[in-house]
Design brief:
about 400 residues, 14 helices, Rossmann fold
Length: about 400
C-alpha cells in the first residue's frame, strides 16, 4: 500500500463562483499553493448560485483539473422539481451538496492527517466544510470585512459578523489583509496574521509617452465602495478626455453606470478579465481609484492599487486605507474637482523616472513571495501537529475524507 503524502493537502473555499475570470486573491493563492513543493495538492471549491433547472444536471462544474490543482463549482441542486418521487428528489438535492466535498477530497488523497482547510468567509459553504471535513488544521482568511457593508441589511451583517466570530475562534490561524481587520480579529484569535494583497507579474509594465487623446481609466468591480460620482464629474468636466471603465456587468453596476456610460467620452468594457487586464492598463495615461471612505473600505487592501503601480501608470486615488504606504507614488484627491486637478497635474509633471519607481516599489509584492510568507506559520511544526478533534462543535468521527 503506497505511503500517504503527509504534506498539506489544501481544501480551499471562496464565497463567489468566478474562477478564471478576474485573478482574485483566492485564485492567486490557490495557484501559488499548488506551485509550491511544500504542498501536495489544492482543491478549490466554489459555491454556485441557485438557478432554475429544466432537467437533470451534474452536481459539479470542473473549471480546472491539473497536476496539483482542481477548481470545482458545487451546484446546490441537481434534480429538478418535476422529478418524482418527492422524497428521492429531496434526498438527492440535500445529500449531494453536503457529501460531495468529502467524496472529492477522499478521491484526491485528502485525509485527517494531511488536510488543511482554508476558508474565505462569509458564505454558508465555509461552515458546511468546517463541520464536515476532518482535518489537521484550519486557516480562516478574511479579505474584506463584509460585516461593515452598511448597504446590506442589519440581519445579513449580523449573520456575517457571527460567522466571522465562530470561524475565527475555532481556527488555527486567521489571515487578514488590512490593519483594520487585524485589530478586530486578533481579539478573537491570538494567532492572527496580516498579509496584504499582492500582484501578478503579468501586470508589470514599462513607461510610455502619452499619445493622442488623454485616456483615464478604472479597473475593477463597481460596488457601493466605488465613487461613481467622481467618475461622472471627470467625464462631464473634461469631455475631451476618454474615460475607460473595465468592470463586470452586475445588476448594481448597470444601475450605477447607466447615466455615465451613455456619455460619448465614456467606454464601459464588461469583458476585461484576468488575461486582458494588463493590456487595458497599458492603454491608460492615468489610473483612477475613487473609493468611498467608510468603515467597509478601511477593512480592504485594494488589489487594483498594486496592479496600477505595477503597470507604471500614474495614479489618482482617494485617501482610503492602505494608500498611506504608497503615498509618494500616488496623488490623493477627495472629490470630482480634486480628481480633475490631480489628473491635470499628473499629465504635466509625471516623468519616466517616477513611472519606473512605481514599478520598483512593488517588485517584491508578488503573489509568489506573499504565498511563501503565508505558508511559514503553517509549515512550522506541521508534521508534529495532531489532527483536529473537533468539527463545528461535534466530536471528530474519524471517518476519513
Amino acid at each position: 500500500m503506497p505511503r500517504k503524502d503527509s504534506r498539506p493537502h489544501v481544501l480551499l473555499s471562496w464565497f463567489m463562483d468566478d474562477w478564471g475570470r478576474f485573478g482574485r486573491a483566492y485564485e492567486q493563492i490557490a495557484a501559488h499553493l499548488a506551485g509550491s513543493d511544500k504542498i501536495a495538492r489544492v482543491l478549490c471549491l466554489l459555491p454556485a448560485d441557485w438557478t432554475p433547472m429544466t432537467g437533470m444536471q451534474l452536481p459539479l462544474i470542473v473549471h480546472e483539473h491539473r497536476d496539483k490543482l482542481s477548481a470545482i463549482t458545487l451546484r446546490p441542486h441537481c434534480v429538478p422539481g418535476w422529478i418524482r418521487p418527492y422524497r428521492l428528489r429531496r434526498a438527492l438535492n440535500q445529500a449531494t451538496p453536503r457529501k460531495l466535498p468529502v467524496l472529492l477530497a477522499r478521491m484526491l488523497g485528502f485525509c485527517p492527517d494531511n488536510t488543511l482547510l482554508w476558508l474565505f468567509p462569509p458564505h454558508p459553504l465555509a461552515e458546511q466544510l468546517q463541520g464536515s471535513i476532518p482535518r489537521k488544521a484550519t486557516v480562516v482568511h478574511v479579505i474584506d470585512n463584509n460585516a461593515m457593508d452598511d448597504t446590506r441589511t442589519a440581519e445579513w451583517r449580523d449573520w456575517v459578523a457571527g460567522q466571522y466570530q465562530r470561524l475565527a475562534r475555532a481556527a488555527d490561524w486567521v489571515y487578514v489583509n488590512s490593519e483594520f481587520n487585524r485589530e478586530i480579529f486578533s481579539s478573537l484569535n491570538s494567532n492572527t496574521h496580516h498579509f496584504t494583497n499582492a500582484v501578478d507579474p503579468a501586470f508589470f509594465g514599462t513607461p510610455r509617452a502619452r499619445r493622442g487623446v488623454v485616456k483615464v481609466g478604472y479597473l475593477g468591480w463597481v460596488t457601493t465602495r466605488t465613487g461613481v460620482a467622481i467618475l461622472e464629474h471627470i467625464a462631464a468636466a473634461r469631455p475631451e478626455w476618454q474615460l475607460l471603465i473595465a468592470a463586470p456587468a452586475t445588476p448594481y453596476s448597470r444601475d450605477r453606470l447607466q447615466t455615465l456610460s451613455a456619455r460619448r467620452n465614456v467606454v464601459w468594457m464588461t469583458d476585461v478579465e484576468k488575461a486582458t487586464a494588463p493590456d487595458f492598463l497599458a492603454r491608460l495615461d492615468v489610473c483612477l481609484m475613487p473609493h468611498v471612505e467608510s468603515a467597509y473600505s478601511k477593512s480592504m487592501h485594494p488589489l487594483k492599487l498594486l496592479q496600477y503601480l505595477a503597470s507604471s501608470r500614474p495614479i489618482v486615488t482617494t485617501a482610503v486605507a492602505s494608500v498611506d504606504r504608497w503615498a509618494e507614488h500616488v496623488r490623493i484627491a477627495a472629490d470630482g474637482p480634486g480628481f480633475v486637478r490631480a489628473i491635470e497635474e499628473t499629465l504635466v509633471h509625471d516623468t519616466p523616472g517616477a513611472a519606473l519607481r512605481r514599478v520598483e516599489a512593488v517588485q517584491r509584492e508578488t503573489w509568489e513571495i506573499r504565498v511563501r510568507s503565508m505558508l511559514e506559520p503553517i509549515l512550522d511544526g506541521w508534521s508534529e501537529r495532531a489532527p483536529s478533534r473537533e468539527a463545528a462543535g461535534l466530536g471528530y468521527r474519524g471517518t476519513g475524507v
